Amino acid sequence: MSMKRGLVRGAFSLGGARAVTSAFNAVALLILARLLTPHDFGVAAIASAVLYFIVSLTQFSIYQALVQRSEVEQEHIDTAWSIALIRSLTIVAFFVLASWPLALLYDDPEMLSVFMVVGLTGGVMGLYNPHIVLAQKGMRFAPMALFQLCRCVGLVAVVILAIIFRSFWAIIIGNLIGAALASLISYVMIPYRPRFTLARFRDLWGFSGWLFLNQLCETINWRFDQLAISVLVPKAQMGIYAIAYSLAIIPTRETIQPLREILFPGLANLTNDRPRLTRAFVRAQSSMAAISTPLALGLALVAEPAVMVMLGPQWSEAAVFVQIFAVTSAIGAFVSCTASAAMALGATRVVFLQQFWTLMARVPLVLAGLHFYGLVGAALAGLLSEIILATISLRFVRSLLGLPIFQQLRMHWSTLLSLAVMSASVLAAELLVNPTFEANIVRFILLVLVGGVAYVGTNLALWAAGGRKEGPVHELIDIAAQMVPARFKAVGPA
After folding, report:
1. Signal peptide location in the record (predicted)?
2. CB under 8 Å to 435, separation ≥6 — which residues?
3. Distance separating alpha carbons of residues 343 and 353, to the nearest angstrom
4. Contact, 163 vs 109, CB < 8 A?
5. Which of 61, 117, 257, 472 is most buried, most CB within 10 Å of its CB?
6. What is the DSSP secondary-structure string of 226-272?
7. Could you read off the pLDDT of 222-277 as tens digits, one per residue?
8. CA–CA gap between residue 235 and residue 44 (Å, rounded)
9. Domain ranges of the chain
10. CA dihedral sign, ordered 445, 443, 377, 245
């Protein structure tokens, strides 16, 4: 199977699973926003920020090391699972010991039991079957897609519990149910009887060591503002900040993450053919940006009616944060494939360094922004940090693949121009739509249609005017053509 065909099949498997999961996420978010209060979301956000910090502190990316290795023996798989077991026990032990001090830190006795349950969630969420990840090495993405779909059970549990209890406990307990069921079902999908051993620890750690440091820095980069804010502001304000972030990252997270998951094993199979790997990287990065950036920037442009329609008027203060976070996500989409390329080449040190230098800038920027301009200042500091990360990523891609920075930027020229036309069109349409239509849902739909038509139309016009050359539009059309079953392609005129 060719890499492109494998990636296309993977994209449909994981993309389809992500689409379903995204739909569940969106519906759950809309329902929860009307059932729970900003204070409830604030409590859940605090617990989530602490959990994912500890998860990253113990995340060794051992399963990803299995994908990167050219030869994988049973001892490698058992060692990876054993390390995951030790990690899970460590997470549970940490929260058992730290729940009381953390409750004192947040001056809320009820947080003691919250952190205890969160610790169990962290313990079970990493104990899934390593064969689920290893299947991707052979370009088999269906197991991972089914594994992701299992997480929808947790979302259903969250909503049901929210309807019953109207409390933040719905999110805390629902997440535990979802994580436990997903891990359990992974062993049903691919039978595997683990055996405890650390015999191949050194083989796997050579790849995973830098990724562990990268994961830690990346989590601090994305969670540091929430960790700092959660201590300094009331839980209700924390809830507004957190729900805005959750809404804003949906467009890029749900389009980029499944593509990144299939891109890494695809590029890993091309490490012996550097020119082909470079071409695959260019196609993937330009296509990914062309898909995800209009969704993110489009959400920023219609943030105010989007918040009113999706979350309700009680969350109106979240609109400005949605705008900032959505623009931040759009910038990150332009360099989202850097880590996949570095991991495929075994250059995990590069993955770590891009996050490390960004972290060195982000911490003082967030603290300064929060001190001088409050929550908006912290959000803007995150935006500036993402620009720094993008700049660093461009330099690393140049050193890894020999692609000049100008060439990396040039591959996005049609996307950037189309985004500019889309933005101008939406802003112009707002002058007519906002005074004419009072209903937020009508304004939202009309502005989305204007932006979508402007972006797609500009891209197609530029592609046609340029002689229909290779690029993101050509690549996406080619991928769409591969979606058509062969029996329909063979049908011609009578």
Report:
1. none
2. none
3. 13
4. no
5. 472
6. HHHHHHHS-HHHHHHHHHHHHHHTHHHHHHHHHHHHHHHHHHHTTTT
7. 777 877 888 888 889 999 999 999 889 888 876 776 666 667 667 777 777 888 88
8. 9
9. 3-411, 412-473
10. negative
